[in-house]
């Protein structure tokens, strides 16, 4: 399928940022590689900084919206947590170049973009914490485990995937997701929770 101009601009900027580094790539470099003009670039982005912000925003917005959908569609904390893990890890496959570039170049993003970025990351963690908290209230997840630490452990483990996941490797992201789900569920479910969680074990 033919990409529109905005998609081409993002695609070539990801390639250039990875190859040369964000600070060594100009808007001229991006538009030339995309076969566009500066007018075309500024139609979609106010600056190169805003382009870098949107590279981050596309994947964090996806995972938030999908998590909200999951919480509406699935009825139990175990099912919600599993589906959130599936959605979260899928992002590291779908948006691998975006995530790799963002983590590599995030220090270059001006301070004015930080509050909204932090708010979106906080929103995702709040959804995850609510699912874990609900699971503790229903007796499916262990109550002695602090909710925030469980949530941070999950996000920390999955976030690190961008450093080592290889699309050409022996394991597809679906396989890695199954391993994450198995490890996380086994560590937090109670005897009651095992009834629903067992089918998700490897």
From TrEMBL:
Residues 3-63 form the HTH tetR-type domain. Residues 26-45 bind DNA. PROSITE patterns: HTH_TETR_1 (PS01081), HTH_TETR_2 (PS50977). SUPFAM superfamilies: Homeodomain-like, Tetracyclin repressor-like, C-terminal domain. It comes from the Bacteria. Keywords: DNA-binding. It holds the Pfam family TetR_C_24. GO terms for molecular function: DNA binding. The keyword tRNA processing does not apply. InterPro entries: DNA-bd_HTH_TetR-type_CS, Homeodomain-like_sf, HTH-type_Tx_Regulator, HTH_TetR, KstR2_TetR_C, Tet_transcr_reg_TetR-rel_C_sf. The keyword DNA-binding applies. PANTHER family: ACREF/ENVCD OPERON REPRESSOR-RELATED, ACREF_ENVCD OPERON REPRESSOR-RELATED. This is TetR family transcriptional regulator. It comes from Savagea serpentis.
């Amino acid at each position: 399928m033919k990409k529109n101009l905005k998609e081409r601009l993002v695609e070539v900027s990801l390639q250039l940022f990875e190859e040369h580094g964000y600070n060594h790539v100009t808007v001229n470099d991006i538009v030339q590689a995309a076969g566009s003009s500066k007018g075309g670039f500024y139609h979609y982005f106010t600056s190169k900084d805003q382009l870098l912000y949107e590279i981050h925003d596309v994947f964090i917005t996806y995972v938030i919206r999908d998590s909200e959908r999951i919480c509406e569609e699935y009825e139990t904390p175990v099912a919600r947590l599993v589906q959130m893990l599936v959605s979260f890890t899928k992002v590291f496959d779908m948006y691998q170049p975006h995530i790799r570039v963002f983590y590599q170049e995030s220090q270059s993003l001006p301070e004015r973009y930080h509050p909204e970025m932090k708010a979106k990351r906080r929103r995702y963690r709040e959804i995850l914490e609510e699912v874990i908290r609900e699971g503790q209230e229903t007796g499916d997840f262990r109550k002695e485990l602090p909710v925030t630490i469980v949530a941070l452990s999950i996000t920390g483990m999955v976030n690190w995937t961008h450093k080592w996941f290889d699309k050409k490797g022996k394991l597809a992201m679906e396989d890695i997701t199954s391993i994450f789900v198995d490890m996380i569920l086994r560590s937090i479910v109670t005897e009651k929770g095992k009834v629903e969680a067992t089918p998700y074990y490897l």
